[in-house]
Amino acid sequence: MNNIIPFQKAKNKLTSAEKVGQLFMPAAFINDTEEEILLLENSIKKHHIGGLCFFHSRASAATNFEGKKKVIFNTQSHETLKGLIKRYQKTSKYPLLISIDAEWGLAMRIENTPQYPYCITLGAIQNNDDLIYKVGKNIAKDCKQSGIHWNFSPVVDINNNPNNPVIGYRSFGENKTQIVAKATAFINGTNSEGILTSIKHFPGHGDTATDSHLGLPIITKTKEELLAHELLPFQKIIDYGIDAVMVGHLAVPALSNGKNIPASISKDIIKGILRSEMNFKGLVVSDALNMHSVSKMYPTKGELEWLAFDAGNDILCFTENITEGVKTILEKAEDNQIEESFERIWKLKERAINNAEKDLKELINPDSLNTKLAQKSLTLLKEELSIANFIKEEFSMVTIGKKSDTNFSNSIREKINFATFSTKDFTIEELKNELQNTNNIVLSLFPPQIKPSNNFEIGAEELEYIQELIQTKNVVFYLFGNPYVLNLFSIKKVKTVVVVYQDFEVFQKNAAQHFLGNAEAKGKLPVTIN
To answer: Which of 108, 320, 63, 317 is nearest to 214 (CA)?
Structure first.
C-alpha cells in the first residue's frame, strides 16, 4: 500500500464530494459473499469512502442483534481478512483507514486469532500496569500484521451497574482512578506500535441496564454526578492525550438541555460538553449507526448520517446509507464543517498509514503474557476454610458448564486423586445420588456466556443445584467467568471462593496450582458483588 499524500496537498486536490466521502466508515464483513464484496468495492470507488470497520459476518453480534441468524465459523477468517484488506485498498483511490474492535485481541472478531483477557480480568491486577501496556502492545502488533490501523479500544466506561447487558466485562471495573491508569497503560502500549486508539463510549455507558444495540439507554444523573464519575476517566485521558473519542448511543438529559436525545447526535453533548467544556481537539467517531437505538428513530435514508455529522462526529461508523448520506451532507453542511472534519481525519490517516507495516508477519502467541496475567489476576474472594486443610480429606469435584476433564481438574489430578463429575455427563438427580455421602466438594463453574442475560445461560436446574451444594456441603468454589455470576447465589455458606475470570488453558492451570498451594491469589475483585 502506498503512503498517503500530505494534508496540505490533499485539501486542495480532493473535491468536496471526495472530502465528504472520507467521513464514512461502513462495515466490512470478513465472511461476505463475492457479490457483497463487489457491492462494497463499488461504494468505495463511487463515494471515495475514508475507511472500513471490519466485523466477522453479517450474522455476528454486531449486526444480528436478535441472534436469529446462525454464525458460520470460518477457520480461515484471518487469512480472508488480510486478503480483503489488500483487495479493498487496491480498489480505493485514496488509502483506506482500516479499523476493528479488538478490545481483547483480534479474537473479538476473528476466530483462531490471539485472545487476551477481558478488561474486567485486567481490572483485578494490582500494581502491574506494565502488563496491561504489553497487552495493548501485543494486540497492536497483531493489528499491524493484519493491515489494521485502528483499534476501537479501550473501554473507559465505569462498570457500576451489575445488570449492564453490553458493557460489564468490557470495563476495567468500578474504580475510576484504576480505569484511568489501566486504560492509559493500554493506550501507551497500542501507540508504541503506531496503532490508533479510541476511548469509548462517551459520555459513559457503564450505569445502564439497556443494550444500545436494541434500545436507547437513558441516564438520569445530574451533571455534577456525571462530572465526578462517568466523565472523569474521559477527561483525564483527554488531558493526557488520545487519538479519538467514540460517542455512544445513550440519552443523558443533564448534558443535553433536558432532551432524551442520543449523545451520538447531540450537539449539546459533542460540540458543547466534549469539544468546548472538556477541550477535546482530536477526532470524534460515532458508535455504529446501524444500532437500533438510533437507526430505528430515523428511517429516512441519509437523515441519521446528517444528524450525526452535524452534531460533531467526524467519522460515521457502520453507516448503511452512504449514497443518501453523502448527498444530504453535501446539501446541508457548511464548507467549514466539512473542512474541519476532513482535516482531522486526513491528519490521523497520515500518521496511521505512513506507520503501517509493509511486510505482514505472524501473529503473536499470547500464552506467555496470558500466563503472567493469570498469575496476577487470580482473586481469593473468601477463605473460611483453607484449601491446604481441605485437600487433606477426601473430596470430589463437580464441574458445571464443561465436561469433567478440564485443564483445571486434570492438572490437579497429576498430584491428587479424586472423583470428578460433570453436568455434561450426569443428570442433576444422578449427581445428587453419587454425592449424597460426600461432604467436601470442589465446584468449578464455567458459565456458558460472559454476558449477564438469561443468568449467563446457566440453566435453572443447575443454578438450583449449585445453591443446594453451597447450603449442604463444604464447598470450595472456583469461578471461570464473569464475577457477577456470584450475584446469582447466596455465597455466605461457601467456604472458599476463588475468581479465575477466564477459562483459557493457562488460567485453568494457574488455578490448579493455586488449589495445590503452589500459586498465590494476587488479584482484587474490580467490582462489588452483592
So the answer is: 63
Question: What's the CA gap between 131 and 408, in Å, rounded?
Answer: 24
Look over the chain and give the mean of its residue pLDDT values, rounded to a whole number.
95
Cell numbers for 21: 466521502
At 61, the pLDDT band (50, 70, 90 cuts) reads confident
| Placement of cell 477459562 in the chain | 503
End-to-end Cα, the chain, rounded Å:
53
Per-residue confidence (pLDDT) for residue 17, from 0 to 100: 98
Please state, in angstroms and rounded to a whole number, the distance separating the CA atoms of residues 499 and 478. Answer: 6
- Point out the catalytic residue in the list 268, 287, 310, 314: 287
Active-site annotation holds for 201: no
Q: In 3D, which of 97, 91, 115, 215 has the Cα closest to residue 152?
A: 97
| Chain segment 143-177, per-residue pLDDT in tens | 999 999 999 999 999 998 888 878 999 999 999 99
56 is catalytic: no
Residues 6+ apart with CB under 8 A from 88: 28, 40, 41, 44, 52, 96
Whole-angstrom distance, CA of residue 2 vs CA of residue 90: 10
pLDDT score for 236: 98
The pLDDT confidence band at residue 206, using thresholds 50, 70 and 90, is: confident
Longest alpha-carbon distance in the chain: 82
Between 402 and 165, residue with greater pLDDT: 402
Catalytic residue among 47, 56, 213, 249: 213
Cell numbers standing for residue 409: 481438574
26, three cell numbers: 461502513
Q: Are 308 and 316 in contact (CB under 8 A)?
A: yes
Residue 525: closest CA among 370, 377, 373, 372:
377
| CA distance linking residue 117 with residue 164, whole number of Å | 19
For residues 163 and 166, give the distance between their C-alpha atoms in angstroms, rounded to a whole number: 9
